[in-house]
Amino acid sequence: MSTKGNRDFRPAFHYAPPVGWINDPNGLLYEDGTWHLFAQHNPDEAVWGPMHWRHATSTDLLHWQDHGVALAPDELGMIFSGSAIIDKGNTSGLGEGGDPMILMFTHHGEHEQQSIAYSNDRMHFTKYEGNPVIPNSDQRNFRDPKVFRKEQLNCWSVVLAAGDHADFYASNDFIHWRKTGDFGKTENKLGGVFECTDLFPLTAPDGKIVWVLIASMAQLAPFGSGRMQYFLGEFDGETFRETIPSDHPRILDGGFDDYAAVTFANTDRRLIVGWAASPGYAGTQPTNEFCCIMTYVRELSLVDTDTGLQLAFKPITPEFALEEVPAQPLPEDRPMFFVPTTEGALPGELFHIHVEADSIFTLTLSNEDGEALNISVSSEQKLVVDRTKSSNNHFSPMFDSGLFSVSSINRNNVGKMTLDVYFDKMIAESFLDDGTVINSTVVFPEKPYQKATLHGFGKLWIGKTKG
Ligand code: FRU
């Protein structure tokens, strides 16, 4: 294994492979108290390479047990991204004495085609001998099948990324598929090719069901970062229609380091997890024997904001005990533009910061060597995460060039705001305004950050894990 850095950046509660490389989360599935997570994986090197699926499970979405490689490349190609489902009623006939778990993935060879594998013990996976089940010989980008079932419909549905749009397929038995529709050719606001699409229903605050279509955008932002876009509308079993359009692209996560996020199947909760990296520079991260981690899993909901209906995210984290940092008394003869500071020591490299601010502010995480990550709400109503001085940024010119991530906040005025930042070794995940604006950013400080400083009027809490 290569040596790319001089510090251990392995996080405590974010999934990372023991060795080798991971990218997209695949095959996310809940069954009988167990969460299954598979990942795009190169077992031999901590950089992208021949893609396998690695398998891990958890009972709490925080502690992950690794089960090694689940699927390896074969004569049809590498094993690209895909999903998993429990074939209730054994419609495929692949079950032995029960309902099989079915993995649906892209075989990436001369062409990208969709294939399946199945498991009756949830630990060993057999590729179906009639693969591919959705063949393809003319589309260059045709991948990442996400299988789901719409209630009241007596069939399986798949959404997959097909060039600059998403295609929909349906099947009664997992083996025979027919194309039913497509979406995005004109609605795609960011241009380029879709990847890792997902489609699922959520209940809006008015009680109506709204379908959410997520697409990761293969065309990278100038600094090498991936972006995800989402659309709100209806799915009739054949195709998706955007019935709640927006004049700006709806961006899932304003940070540099959240890509290919998809949701768990077979659970009433809508939980999403993303690859916490940027496709442009992920392979250069100074993390030694492993490369890349997943974000915290986040629970999704739909909320109304000043700028319309949108997704909100609530992370699943360990429990933190928050303690308020006492504020300094304000000096009596302070100048007009005086900015108070509140500062407290950090309890290691796993913590939660909570800020309640009365107007614009900056939260700084820093160490004695001057490495600092700044998270601000600016007067332009943006959440700005600035990692200019966060770490040794020189391991990648792309990482070094894209130093600010900026997202619009979904309100008409900056006023009272809350910010929650969850930090775990190499990742800061920020949730502003109850998770209606989020930002995932990786950092690699040479030394652990030691203190949190709030610049602005407001209150600061620092939390360490309970127990
Ligand atoms: C997204 C992606 C997918 C593909 C996989 C290959 O990061 O490009 O579209 O299936 O990664 O590793």
Give a description of the structure:
The protein has one helix and 34 strands. It folds into two domains: 20-315, 5 Propeller (Tachylectin-2, Chain A); 320-332 and 339-465, Exo-inulinase, domain 1 (Jelly Rolls, Sandwich). It is 1% helix and 48% strand. The strands form seven sheets. Strands 23-34-25-30-31-32 form a six-stranded antiparallel beta sheet, with no helix packed on it. A hairpin with a 3-residue loop joins strand 6 (101-108) and strand 7 (112-119). With 467 residues, the protein is an all-beta fold. It has one helix at residues 397-401, and strands at 20-31, 34-42, 52-58, 65-71, 78-86, 101-108, 112-119, 126-127, 142-148, 156-162, 165-171, 178-183, 194-203, 209-217, 227-235, 240-241, 250-251, 259-263, 271-275, 290-291, 298-305, 308-315, 320-324, 341-345, 350-357, 361-366, 372-377, 382-389, 404-408, 417-424, 427-432, 437-442, 451-455, 458-465. The mean pLDDT is 94. Beta-D-fructofuranose (FRU) binds at residues 23-24, 40, 51, 80-81, 106, 143-144, 195-196, 260, 279.
State the gist of this model:
With 467 residues, the protein is an all-beta fold. The protein has one helix at 397-401; strands at residues 20-31, 34-42, 52-58, 65-71, 78-86, 101-108, 112-119, 126-127, 142-148, 156-162, 165-171, 178-183, 194-203, 209-217, 227-235, 240-241, 250-251, 259-263, 271-275, 290-291, 298-305, 308-315, 320-324, 341-345, 350-357, 361-366, 372-377, 382-389, 404-408, 417-424, 427-432, 437-442, 451-455, 458-465. A hairpin with a 2-residue loop joins strand 1 and strand 2.
